[in-house]
Amino acid sequence: MKKKILIVDDEPLVRRSLKRVLEPDFEVSEAKDGAEGLELWKRSTHDLVFLDVLMPGLTGLQVLNEMKSLGPLKSKVILISAYSGEEDTQSSGADLFLLKPFDDIFHVKMEAQRLLNR
């Protein structure tokens, strides 16, 4: 059974790129904003969530805080942003921070696989 990944990002190109590289090996869902991502996450179990930090409406950090408030976090979380934010990763409880644009989309997939195999 394939592991499930949720991509939450307001940029369609980012969602499409991640989905294209991840889909052969994972079941991928996507959300265009934080509110939609949170609803998808509540309705289905995801092993990993890619979460954009800066989005209109609910930010990635707000979504992550809401996810944690609902009980122990069962999903691994990778924060992604075009702006530096590694300090947010430690304080937020996310597992990893990746800077956009991605230099190597296959490296992103490798990091996802590494997290899921822990």
CATH topology: Rossmann fold
The percentage helix is: 40-55%
Q: By CATH's scheme, which homologous superfamily applies?
A: Response regulator
Main CATH class: Alpha Beta
Distance between the termini: 17 Å
Domain count: the total is: 1
CATH architecture: 3-Layer(aba) Sandwich
Structure report:
The protein has 118 residues and is of the alpha/beta class. It has a single domain (4-116), classed as Response regulator (Rossmann fold), CATH 3.40.50. The chain has five helices and five strands, in the order βαβαβαβαβα. The chain has helices spanning 12-22, 34-43, 60-69, 86-92, 105-116; strands spanning 4-8, 27-31, 48-52, 76-81, 96-99. The chain has a five-stranded parallel beta sheet, with helices on both faces. α1 (12-22) crosses α5 (105-116) and α2 packs parallel to α3. It is globular. The mean pLDDT is 92.
Structure summary:
The protein is α/β, with parallel strands linked by helices and 118 residues long. The protein is 42% helix and 21% strand. Strands 2-1-3-4-5 form a five-stranded parallel sheet, with helices on both faces.
Topology:
Elements: E1 4-8, H1 12-22, E2 27-31, H2 34-43, E3 48-52, H3 60-69, E4 76-81, H4 86-92, E5 96-99, H5 105-116
Helix pairs in contact: 1-5, 2-3
Please describe the structure with a list of short key phrases separated by commas or semicolons.
single chain; 42% helix; 5 helices; alpha/beta; 118 residues; five-stranded parallel beta sheet
